[in-house]
Amino acid sequence: MLLDQLRTLLDRHARPDGTTAIDGVLISRIDRPSEPSASMSGTVFALIAQGAKRIGVGDRVYEYRAGQYLVASVDLPVNGHFINSSAANPALGFGLTLDPASVAELLLRAEPADLPRGGGIPPLGLAVSTASDELLDAVLRLLRLLDEPRDRGVLAPLYKREILWRLITGEQGATVAQLGLADSSLAHIARAVGWIRDHYRQSFQVEDVARRAGMSVSAFYRNFQAVTAMSPIQFQKQIRLQEARLLLATRPGDVAGVGHSVGYDSPSQFSREYRRQFGAPPSQDAARLRALTPP
């Protein structure tokens, strides 16, 4: 079976940092239970070959298992973890960074009738589907190049393009296709997401961000909520709290300073929102994280 072959390759080539010899290709191998951790999703195609993964963004929860994949078309703040993984049955996953320029090139080469039709509201920022045999086969051929360095430089770009094409013509085609459309609603929201992520410390008016995205306030708010499952202010808060958690790992005794550095003027508000997000006050959570980190 294709999945069995994928598991063998993923298990053999997994590295602790998740990278591979092929640019943009990632491998996950998790052999122990893990708690949900906060991160940015990136724009990525992620396929599970063994085990399962659960991801939360805003008020939505996604779970995908062996033979299923997730597409992230916008770089979103997420909480996620592999579930039920163990040394005897590790979770194994494949990831491919989605490049908007590569998507745009395929869209230009394709016949219009072969492309997915988009609606008025952009697709969700995250979506889960079952992988077709054609998609699994393309992933398998790309992974085999890890054992064939002579062929890698020539064939890897071709197999990546095939994977993108299988995604564009698959169930989540509208989501992937909008990555390559410079004037799509998704592209406008992605610009706003990038601006908020880069300026998360400063306060903003939604009207100003809508103007930067080139949309009316009502259309911007509606589309932002549809793509990210959050309001712009909630999105900013997620970024602030994720950054604060990273800072607290190195500055556990400076809760007020960390809160201020990520944009909170009120220490009590920072502590309250941090506890609501992570289930413990900042100082207590920092101590727990440090205890879990190997020396």
UniProtKB/TrEMBL annotation:
Which spans of this chain does the record mark as coiled coil?
none
GO molecular function of the protein, one example?
DNA-binding transcription factor activity
- Give all residue intervals belonging to the HTH araC/xylS-type domain: 190-288
Q: Which InterPro entries match?
A: Homeodomain-like_sf, HTH_AraC, HTH_AraC-typ_CS, Tscrpt_reg_HTH_AraC_N
Q: Which Pfam families match?
A: AraC_N, HTH_18
Q: Where is this region: Disordered?
A: 273-295
Which of UniProt's keywords are assigned here?
DNA-binding, Transcription, Transcription regulation
What protein name is recorded for this chain?
AraC-like DNA-binding protein
Q: Which organism is it from?
A: Crossiella cryophila
